[in-house]
Amino acid sequence: MSSGVRGELLNSLKRAQAEHAHLPREVMEEISRSLEIPLGDVFTVASFYSFLSEKSRGRNTIMICRSVPCYLKNSAMIVESLADELGIGMGETTADGRFSFTSTNCIGACDSAPAMLVNDDVHGDLTPRRISRILKSYR
Amino acid sequence: MPEQRLVLGNCGVIDPRDIDTYLDRGGFEALERARSAMTPEEVIGAVRASGLRGRGGAGFDCGLKWEMARNAQAEERFLICNADEGEVGTFKDRFILENDPFTLIEGIAIAGYAIGAEKAYIYLRAEYHFLLDLLLGAISQARDEGFLEPLEVEVREGAGAYICGEESALMNSIEGRRGEARFRPPFPTAEGLWGRPTIINNVETLMNVPPIIARGPEWFAELGTAWSKGTKVFSVSGDVARAGVYELAMGCRLEELVVDLCGASNLKMVQVGGAGGSIVPAGLIDTPLSFETVLGSGGITVFDESRCVIDIVHRDLEFFADESCGKCTPCREGTEVMLEILGRLSRGDGVERDLESLEDLSEVMMLSSLCGLGQAAAVPVQDSLLHFRHEYEDRVEKSLFLRTLEKAGRS
């Protein structure tokens, strides 16, 4: 047994996700063919990791930290602010496809709680006003 | 007790983007010393003599792990640096990577030399993707200076799964599989990544290696307690005035960290070691922090008197039920049932029997879960029942009373 192509699967899925903002079935089929890994195996890996999504999402994905340290600093405020600003609820995508938001477990930004990730960027010490400004910076 | 910066000595001092600022402070001298003046066995001997134990939470003897991997018969061996810091309330490794990636790389190079690995992986959690460029830059500068030869260092990124911080799940993830825990034995030091002997060390553990080699194991072993040598880097958050990363000698008291340094007041309890960490009530705030007492990953979440213990433990279990990989039954089902019971208690639908069920489940999960996740999930439940049982009983009693009133009102 050696590293081989199997070890490339997660990287391939991550690259595809970055390109398409989610993992459409055709893309997983393509990965399955090129790495010669059964589609079922590709799907089972894709469905395991929370940052990989088979469902279509917005161009910008917001993940609110729902863990205890952020909860203590009123992370519920982030959910309310985002719902107000974007007019969508948790797990939904804006009509223009610009944003979708969901929650995730601890993102390791507890010293600047409450915090969220927008794509790969960490934003901490959030207030409704800061959230509004942050959203404007993503197209 | 003041802060003692052994691991964080370069943080805020060097430029993490410029290897020269690290070299100016004696960077990579420990590696040179290890390679030119010590055999791999002597390096392992020094780490064993230092008493260094793993800083990711489990506290395994680091030198012993290296020795087992070195002694395993194999054509190749692997080294993995675990930078999948997912423990709730833990951000020390992020701080280290942000401020001093070079000491980590030096530690990796020394470890690679000691066990005879030619390939090292750094497994970086997806949430820390923003650190990738910095880390890759540091690796390439070290490579250009010739420090990594013959070691190849590759960064692998996770994709959002707490369980991948567990060593066997982490290896499955690198192999391109679901991040599920493996049965042990075989242990990774015998059959790890792709069936080869592998050591998996936390970021902070490897940060301790260059100073141990540079200043000697005796110097290191003088710090700390009988079974916990050196310092510990703590991540403190929650109800404190000054959240952040602090480094103190092992054996420091919880009060010194949380009250004196971080400015906590009206303290109710502290959870030490993330969502699966021990819950220490305010009355025991003079507890020392060490492997002998409480420690874990050093993630410290502070709660003041306004917080409800059932609410917090319920949220801890939300985390574990969500992150359980689902492979073993005690953890997969146990976390769900605990979540359901705690939700019931939290909403005011609890019954007296619920407390007993939580205790029974805790015991089963601790004894029979496949990995640390299912075992840890039971810790806050058990600890809160031990220290705050009256709150649970009070909640059940009041909810029973309220339900009786409701019923009377309806009839």
Polypeptide structure, described:
The complex is a heterodimer of chains A (139) and B (411). Chain A is an alpha+beta fold and 139 residues long. Chain A is built from 6 helices and 4 strands; from the N terminus they run αααβααβββα. Chain A has helices spanning 9-20, 25-35, 39-46, 68-72, 76-86, 128-136; strands at 60-65, 99-104, 116-118, 121-123. A 4-stranded mixed beta sheet of chain A has the order 2-1-3-4, covered by helices on one side. In chain A, helix 1 (9-20) runs antiparallel to helix 2. The model of chain A has no long low-confidence stretch (mean pLDDT 94). Chain B has 3 domains: 19-221, NADH-ubiquinone oxidoreductase 51kDa subunit (Rossmann fold), CATH 3.40.50.11540; 231-304, Ubiquitin-like (UB roll), CATH 3.10.20.600; 309-402, de novo design (two linked rop proteins) (Up-down Bundle). Chain B contains 17 helices and 9 strands. Chain B has helices at residues 19-23, 29-37, 40-50, 62-71, 92-99, 101-115, 132-144, 167-174, 203-207, 209-215, 217-221, 254-261, 309-323, 329-347, 353-368, 372-387, 389-410, and strands at residues 78-83, 119-124, 152-157, 198-202, 231-238, 244-249, 267-272, 278-281, 299-304. Chain B has a 5-stranded mixed beta sheet. A 4-stranded parallel beta sheet of chain B has the order 3-2-1-4, sandwiched between helices. The relative contact order of chain B is 0.12. The chains are: A alpha+beta (139), B alpha/beta (411).
